[in-house]
Structures are given as C-alpha cells and as structure tokens.
Amino acid sequence: MMKKFIPVFIGLSSYKSKYAIECVNFLTKTEFVLSESESVRVKLGLLVNKKGKADKNKPADMQQENNIKNVKHVIRGLGSGKSEKAMLRASKAAPVVSGILNGLNKSIGKNEKDSHAKKSMASDINVLTEKMRLLKPLAIHHGRKCAMAKMSASVLCKVDKTKLQEFIVRHSVRAIKMMEAVEDEDSLN
After folding, report:
1. Contact 24, 172 (CB under 8 A)
2. Which of 23, 56, 104, 172 could form a Cys-Cys staple with 2, CB 3.0–4.6 A?
3. Where are the domains positioned within the chain?
C-alpha cells in the first residue's frame, strides 16, 4: 500500500510531501536495510494488542492518542486551582482511572458506545443523490462545461514518472545514510 501511496501523496501536494518521504524511508528501512527478523519487529512495533485476543491489534499512535485524551480528561476534572504536582499525579493515574471507570460501567450494564446515536448511511446517500440530481455537476450548462467537468480523473496524472523515480532514489539514499550514521554513533558508544 505504501508503494501505491507515494505517487498519490506527491500528486495531492508536491515532491516535498512529508507523507511520501516517510513512506520511502519506511520502505527503504524495512525492505532493504534491515534483516527480515528486524523488519518484522519494526512492523509489529507499530501495533498494540491490549486485549491479547487474535485480530485485536490497534495502531500504536492511535493508542497513544487515546491515552493523551484520557489524561487531558482527568486533568480537566481537577478544576481551575490545580498545581503542577496534582497534574503530574493525575496524569500518572489517568489510565488506571479510565480502566476502573470502564470496568464499573461494564459491571452495571452501561455501555459507553450506546450513548451516541449513529446516523443511518442510507439516509445520507439519499440526500446526496437528490442534491446531485438537482445540481447536475457533470452536465453541460448553457453551452459551457461546468468547473467539475475540467477536474482530472486522478491525481496521478500530475506525477511525472522520471521525477518520481529521482524522488524515490534520493530519499532512499538519504534514509540509508541516516541509518549508517546512527549505527556508527552506536558503535562509538
């Protein structure tokens, strides 16, 4: 997927896209520089499995975002007169407090997800379909084409293949040099 995303990110922004650069770096390191076992360790390190059940893996950065959200919620609960020490204590306790609260809610039969109503996708599609019929965005109006008719079918049309190849080579060489510099620094220590 990352190989496919590189030209998409470049087409959407430019050859300076940090997402495209990150894809090249990741692929270079995991597919060419690291051994197979190290590569698997890096890929597994990107996931977290809190429940320990099969297929319950979650991206590690999403887990960290959820932890930060819990910490902020607990700190806000301290009120306006909170000291630095109280915030530090609360932030350390936030995951435990959240776990206790979830366990309590489960034991009394209250499911947190039930409190939010979920809209039907079918009604959204019906509204969108009706609006598209009224607006006719791809039709010709009064002898001239609409602005949407001029849009490119794909952002990949903007990407020059030779420039893309130079981009990938340049950033993969840079990723290899950075890894060699880190290895040299580790060997000196």
Report:
1. yes
2. 23
3. 47-108
